[in-house]
Amino acid sequence: xTELKVLLSREKIAERVAEMGxxxxxxxxAEPIIFVGVLKGxxxxxxxxxxxxxxxxxxxxxxxxxxxxxxxxxxxxxxxWDSTGEVRLTKDVDQSLRGKNVVxxxxxxxxxxxxxxLKRLLQGHxxxxxxxxxxxxxxxxxxxxxxxxxxxxxxxxxxxxxxxLDYAERYRNLPDICVLPNGAGGNAS
Length: 189
Ligand code: IMP
Ligand code: MG
Hints:
Blueprint: E1 5-8, H1 10-28, E2 33-39, H2 43-50, E3 57-66, E4 87-91, E5 101-109, H3 113-123, E6 129-137, E7 150-154, E8 160-161, E9 177-179
Parallel strand pairs: 2-3, 2-5, 5-6, 6-7
Antiparallel strand pairs: 1-9, 3-4, 8-9
């Protein structure tokens, strides 16, 4: 595997995820939480986060896919990677969220199309409370007016991989979050 520049080390991530877990626990006021992770990118973040939470927690997963071009790290294709805003649900939650305390868990908040779509979908269940936790936020890329309640790290407009985040399904198992340089991903597939 190519040497990639580390943006956020595993130690730094672990420390911040623990803080987020404490914050979420405090806000829950001893009530149980259902964490809803967005496949596949948030799987690793969710599994670390739920182990730092001190209230009863269960979890669910949703799957989404975006029509059109997927993000690629190459500068030439940059204009084409902006999602079209057409988000489609590929996997729904297995239980009703009505009256529950829900925390949606996403790997990265970029244009905001995915989060806008999922907020609308999950709030339609009429949960008792609804909050959003994202590990990474790229505010400079936002196209929809949406924000998260818990943000691990604000990062610059770089394409990052590792700790669940992929480029063409690769690099999800890197323990650190790394910057993928232009062209490093090979052929966009
Ligand atoms: P949004 O709808 O544009 O906010 O898209 C968020 C989704 O785009 C994330 O869940 C990721 O799947 C993907 N994404 C955005 N930026 C990156 C990145 O830097 N690395 C890997 N995936 C990314
Ligand atoms: Mg994702």
